[in-house]
Structure formats: structure tokens, C-alpha cells
Amino acid sequence: MEFSEALLTHLTALEKSLHSPLVRKSPAKLERLLHAEFKEVSRSGVYLQKEDVLVAFEQATRLPTIHSEGYRLVYADGEVAIITYATACVSEAGTLFNHALRSSTWLRAATNWQLIFHQGTPAEPPLENS
Question: Which of 114, 32, 100 lies closest to 66, judged by CA?
Fold first, then answer.
């Protein structure tokens, strides 16, 4: 894939899959999507490694519903791609909270793309449910 709409569509689908509780609770799916050297700087500013994320998802009793939008492919060279987007958690009443701007760096592995770095930064609430 090249720097294209098709790559953006593919990586957006992978990002959105990582927002799903079904994926977050599946070690096998996470192993496929997260690179062995995965690192994250969370929305709250906590530095996490892959094992930290796997344990947190495994131990979570309830995972939030996540709304995301505004996906943009900002860099791609065939082996590395960076996308940015915005997220918010969705309350049971349907209101959005914990808004964040996000950035993800994906690496092309032998047979699939894997997330190697992710960062979330608190943001003002620009998102609307759509």
C-alpha cells in the first residue's frame, strides 16, 4: 500500500478495532495488532509498554465505548505510517467526555500492520456524536 486513501481506510479500521472491547479482551487479537516493542503515552500522561496495556485490558471489568473521528494519514513510506484522529468516551446517556487527540505509528510486519507507538493528549470537546 502507498500513501493513499486505501491505506488510511485500512489503518482506520485497525485503530477502530482496538477500541472494541472484543479486541481489547482478546490476547490473541492484541498480539496480532500490537508490535512486540509497542509503547504508549496515555491520555493521562502515563508511559506504558505492551505488557502494561495487556494486563490493564485483561483486568478491566468495564471498558468504555469510544467515539472516534477525523482520521488523517500524515506520513507513509511503505513500511511506516502515522495517523492522527480525535476520540471521546461515550457515557451511558450518550454524552461525550474525556476528549483526546491521538497519534498512532504503524509498522508493516510480514503479513500485517502493527501498532508500535500511540499517544493520547487531552483536548477540548470538539467532537459530536455522529
Answer: 100
